[in-house]
Structures are given as structure tokens and as C-alpha cells.
Amino acid sequence: MKADMPATNRSRPSMSAMLRDAAAAAFVAALLAFPLLGFKLNATAQGLHLDMRLSWVPIAAGIVFAGRLLLTLGGQYVAPIIARRVAPDVDAIRRRLPSRSAYMVGIAMAAVAIALPWLPFADRNLIDKATLILIYVMLGWGLNIVVGLAGLLDLGYVAFYAVGAYSYALLSQHFGLSFWICLPLAGLLAGAFGVALGFPVLRLRGDYLAIVTLGFGEIVREVIINWDKVTGGPNGLSGIERPSFFGLPMLPTSMAPPGSTTFADFFGIAFSPNQRIWFLYYLILALALATNLFTQRIRRLPLGRAWEALREDEIACRSLGINPTLVKLSAFAIGASFAGFAGSFFATRQGFISPESFTFIESAIILAIVVLGGMGSQIGIVLAALLLVGLPEWFRELEQFRMLAFGAAMVLIMLWRPQGLLSHREPTLRLSDVPRKLVSESAT
Amino acid sequence: MGARQGGMEYFLQQLINGVTLGATYGLIAIGYTMVYGIIGMINFAHGDIYMVGAFISLVGFLLLGFFGITYVPLACLLVLVFAMVFTAVYGWAVERLAYRPLRGSQRLAPLISAIGVSIVLQNFVQLSQGARVKPLQPMINGGITLVPDADFPVTISYIKIMIIVTTVVLMAGFTLIIKYTSLGRAQRAAEQDMTMASLLGVNVDRTISATFVIGAMLAAVAGLMVTLYYGVVDFYIGFIVGIKAFTAAVLGGIGSVPGAMLGGMLIGLIEAFWSGYFSIEYKDVAAFSILVFVLIFRPTGLLGKPEIEKV
Known about the structure:
heterodimer, A: 2 domains, two-stranded antiparallel ribbon, two-stranded antiparallel sheet, 18 helices, globular, B: mainly alpha
């Protein structure tokens, strides 16, 4: 095994030390590349063959050598300049910002989101992508109640999303219920699943909870796959009813069910498929903002305060007479019901759902959004969703490398900012006569 | 599956299947439990390390075929060493790059990093080796028929014997390492109190690296044996096996090495008996449900020590 490579040297390392360090990194890279890049397993009809491509190994090692050297040199010569020149300015700007700046930024972001469809460059594609990002923002905000506020690690959040999606699809297909009746029902059902799962497991320590929720997410997915009489199995459910504008179907007049007035006819405008895209966009925006508003308000209620107190110190809470199981259960159920709302929106937007959409990777993406956003920071979640969902959407063409880059970005952002993009947590309560500096120091 | 489900023979056959399966879960679970014991993180990428191990052993077998080594026991031994060495490098590099810089930061940071590593490894293998399932012709055929005259003959194939024997040997050796070597002592010290251990001269970083290397080696062995046993490998196998092995580690009491072995066996047996007697579709559901029940009634797992929280 190689000796540890020094990551940062206090004293300025000599060029030869840097070269040696880069060579060590290149050596490890060559070892890593040898079995998996140097050979390719080729499955043919005659069996498995081994294609040689050993030339890839020195290429990989060379790239790592150059990269490592550049990084060390950068750390050597560029980082001190940044630390000396740029960082004080950033700090000064940050200090001068008014304390309500987060609130103002939030309002500005909401305004941009509301105005988005009217902007000149907004085409159908952009609004579609924005809708997708908003779904993840909403899921992130919902999960934030569980992970960020109550401090419960939930790795199976997508299960509740699936419950919401399938409840809407099944209720509308079997009972003909409309989206607006199903939306609260889906939330309730997902919340009920949250209670059913949470009740036995919430007494457990955090990491056990994580694995049980992960298992639960897989159980839900397996049941969906195998219970094909009801859920359609791996093929999923298609032909899910599209949303109506409070009862007015958003269809061309010729396709509307007889006897009903379409949205376009009702308002006396020409039909255009864009109307539905816009409507869906505003629908998810409203749902997401409602989630956000709910979170903001409940943090000021005793229940929300109990969540945050429990996250900080469970034993202290117990001694103050807070029932931890009940408080955790409420966070779990409320978080789950927001996933249920988002799920039924997802079903009506897609018109088709299958277990493919509810794999673990979705849970991981949502959790990554919450953690990268900075655990409890509502704006941070929006930024993280833009970064993790929006950015890859623009690189759809590089489909194959997309997930690789996504995973690498998750690691790199964590290394760069382990506390999340916006880590600052605004305390919900301040003692008015304690100097502010003292409070903010003790609150961190 | 057999036609007759009632008899003793059928039961025995499921027992053998379960123990074989449980052996591989146990090997992987050790990697989870050791890492959790020392640094308290769920090494989410461990299942994918196992997958990488399976691919590396496949490459190893084909390389040996290329060099004309076809004597099966020798080939298996060489591939075992090959896979262990190169998978160990993966385990070491992952710890060094993605986890070590995050030591001492908030609890969720290493977990997110680990999920990222898991995604990277899966997609790296998918890109470099293709998404197609890789089949390998069965190399070890035949077996011993235990109850020949019954109407449901119970057989134990050589490959199953090899899996069980290798696992038992490795686990015994590993237990000895933890008990008697200085590395094992350092591991146990770091598990109890990392700061104190480093004050007393234990190189904690190196101990943690060694833990990851050993975990990756054991996962590579599991990867090799599953490759031989099932004969198919794809880039996605690490995920579900990883979850089950972690379930096994929790079931046995996380942080406890004998617990990981016990938990692995139990998960393997539950899975085998469930698919043998009830339905093969819901075997994973059964394993997870049992986990939930155990955690409700014995939250520290079967062999875990209760953790007393002091204020």
C-alpha cells in the first residue's frame, strides 16, 4: 500500500516533492484503471471475450498526473491570492447584507419563477424543464421537514412519492375521481403510509432509521412491480387522466368528452397545447410555494419548534416533557404527505407511471438536494435543485456521462462545502435583550 | 424449485442454498460493520466495491484463459489474489479521496459523498464495460448427492462447498487478525475512542485505510464467488446486495464482526426459505420485514452492545 500523500503542505513543497506526489497519484490511477479500463469484457453470442485496450491505462495515469500537479500548483500559487484579495471582500459584502436578505432573495426568486413563462426566451422546452426542477424543489422542501428540521434521516422518501402517484392513478382510473379530489387524498394516503412506517421505527437511532426507510422504499417498489393485477407491474399504468382546470378539460374541443366545456372554449380563446404546459407549471409552482409557506409558518409553531429542538438534543427534549415519538411521527407524516402531493402531480403530468420512476436513485437525488442545500435552508434547496436537476437536464445529449458527472459532483460539492451550499441556519427565536452576536455564536 | 415442498429433503436443500447465500452476505456485511464501528458512517459504496470485485474477477478469469491457465483450482486461486489486490486499491482510493477529507464534518456529509461514489462506480463500470449482462460459462460442475435414494435428491455442488469453506476460512482468519495482531488492536482502539487512540500513538488514518482495504478484499471474494455461482454479472448487482448486506450487519448488531456473519447467515436463510416455501417475488420484502421486526424488539441487533448515552 502506498504511503499517505500529503494533501496540503504547510511549508512550500519543492517541485520534486510535487512531482513525486503527482507520480504517486498517477500510480494509483494506473492500478485503478488496469483491470477495468485496460480490458473490456465483450459479451457475444459465442460467450465472453476480452478486448485489450491497455493503451488506456497510461492515458488515464497521465491525465491524473497532470491534474494532480496542476491542483497542487494551483493550491500553491492561486489559493493564497484568492485568500488575500478576494475573500475579505466577500466577507465584507456578506457582513453588509441586511439580516432579511435571505427573505428578499426568496421573494425575488419567487417573482422570477412566476414571471418565467412570459419571459421572451421561455419556450415550451424551458417551461417543461422548469416544471421538473420545481417537482424536485417541492420534494426537497418536503424532505427538508423530515431531514432538515426534525433531523431524521430518510433514505426511502421516494416511496411516499410513489404512493402519491399510484393513489392518484388508481383512484382516477377506478373511481373516476378528478385530480382535485385525488390530490388531498394522495397526500393523506402517503401521510398514512408515513405513520404506518414511522410508528414502529421512529424509536430507533438515526442510522437504523436510515436503513429501515431505505428498505421500506425498496419494499414499496417491489410490491408495485409484483402486484401487477393492481399496479400494472413493471409496465406501469398508462392513460392517467390529465389535469383539468378546476373541471374544465385542457383539450381541443374535438377531443373533449361530450357535454363538457373545454378550458379554451370557456375563456373564449383558441386552444393551444402550451396552455397545459403553462397550467402544469403554475400548478407545481403553487404546490411548491405552499410547501415552503407551510414550512416557514410551522417553524414558528410549538410543533415546529419541537422538531428543531429534538434534532439538537433528544435527551433535553425528553426531560422537558416533549414526547419524541409523537413529534418525530408528525414530521415523518407531514413530510410524507408533501411527497404524496408531488407524486400525484407527477402522475398527472406524465400521464404514465411505472416503478422505473421510483428507484432509490430518486431518493438519493432528493436527499442530496437537501443536504447540498444546507439542511434546513429553503433557498439552498432551490439552488441545489437547480444545480443537480437543472444542470444535467441541459446535458441530456451526453446521456452516458451525465450520471457519472452527477455522482462526481455530489462528492466534489461535499468535499468543497461539507456543511452545504447555504449552511447558515436562522434561529427562529431570539432573546431580545441578549446581544445579537452572542446568540448567533451560541446558535451555531 | 422442486416439485415437492413438504419433505425433509427439500428443507435440507433450502438450508444449503441459504447458507451459501448467507456466506456471501456475511463477507460483504463485515465491510459495512467494521467501517461503521470505527468511523460511524454507512459506507454506501461498499455494495459497488463488491460489484467492482465481481468484474475484476471476471477480467481475471479471461486473462488466465488468455495465458492458457485452465486448471480450475489454480485459476480460482490466482483470480482470488488478483481480484483481492485490485479491489483493495479501489477500496483504499475511495476512502482516501471521498471520505477522509470529510472526517469530523457533519454526520450526513460522508453519507452523501458515499452515495455519490456509488453512483460514480456504477456508471464508471457501465461506461467502461458496457451495460450488457456478462455471462460466464460454469467452471466448477458437479457435486455430492447427500440423500441419493429420496425422491427429491439433495445435492451440494462443489461450488457451494467452495463458497462455504472459503468464507469460513476467511472469517476465522479475520477474527484472528482482529484479536491478535497489532492492526486488530489498533482497530479496536480506534473503535472505542479515536482521539484517545491517536494520543496513544495509534496511526488512526492508517488504521482506517487498512479497514477499508480489508473490507474491499472480503467484498472482492464475495464478488468472485457470486460470479462463479450465478455466472452473470452486471453493473447494477452491487445495489441490492449492498442493501441486504447492510441489513445483515444491522441485524447482527452493527459494529460487531461475529454479528455481521450471523446476520448474513440469517438473511441468506430467510431469503432461501422464503423463496423455497412462499414466493420468490417477495423474498427481498421478507428480508426487510424481518429486519424491521428485529429492530423493534431488539434495536441494537442480535449481538450488538446496547449504547448508553451519557449527558
